[in-house]
């Protein structure tokens, strides 16, 4: 029987669980480098597992007082378009609300902007480039 679990982990220890999926998607599939950074330690990570397999995750950290930056939102290829990405985003936003957030922000790959708009985010500012990939800043006002 398949069992879904959702948990939050604060700090870099979450990378022990999320690291393989993040490497698979961001480095192997999409060609990014240096997947892990100093924000992993400061972040609250949400992890979705199906049985014992990590199938989706994301993180957030307080970028400025009351403003939480969401990122590294990832879903295993076989589970995309199954709603897990929305669950990750909604879990992070809801958790930010419990921390008295005023706003959540993220830098979306431009091809994913529509997904984030469906999650309640709005485009903000010009397109920027991260590792030669076009990104769009997006905001969610609470």
SSE inventory with pairings:
Layout: E1 4-10, H1 15-29, H2 39-42, E2 44-50, E3 53-64, E4 67-75, H3 84-98, E5 103-109, H4 113-118, E6 122-130, E7 133-141
Parallel strand pairs: 4-5
Antiparallel strand pairs: 1-2, 2-3, 3-4, 5-7, 6-7
Summarize the structure.
With about 140 residues, the protein is an alpha+beta fold. The chain has a single domain (about 5-140), classed as 3-Layer(aba) Sandwich (Aminopeptidase).
Structure in words:
This protein is an alpha+beta fold and 142 residues long. It has a single domain (4-141), classed as Gcn5-related N-acetyltransferase (GNAT) (Aminopeptidase, 3-Layer(aba) Sandwich), CATH 3.40.630.30. Helices cover 28% and strands 42% of the residues. It is built from four helices and seven strands. The chain has a seven-stranded mixed β-sheet. Strand 3 and strand 4 form a beta hairpin. It is globular, with a radius of gyration of 14 Å. The model has no long low-confidence stretch (mean pLDDT 93).
């Amino acid at each position: 029987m398949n069992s879904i679990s959702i948990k939050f982990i604060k700090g870099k220890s979450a990378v022990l669980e999320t690291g393989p999926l993040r490497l698979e998607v961001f480095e192997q599939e999409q060609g990014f480098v240096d997947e892990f950074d100093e924000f992993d330690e400061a972040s609250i990570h949400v992890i979705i597992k199906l049985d014992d397999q990590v199938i989706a995750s994301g993180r957030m950290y307080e970028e400025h007082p009351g403003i939480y930056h969401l990122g590294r939102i990832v879903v295993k290829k076989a589970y995309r378009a199954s709603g897990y990405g929305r669950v990750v985003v909604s879990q992070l936003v809801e958790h930010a609300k419990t921390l008295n957030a005023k706003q959540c922000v993220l830098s979306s790959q431009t091809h994913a902007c529509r997904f984030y708009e469906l999650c309640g985010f709005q485009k903000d500012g010009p397109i920027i480039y991260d590792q030669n990939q076009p990104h769009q800043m997006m905001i969610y006002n609470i």
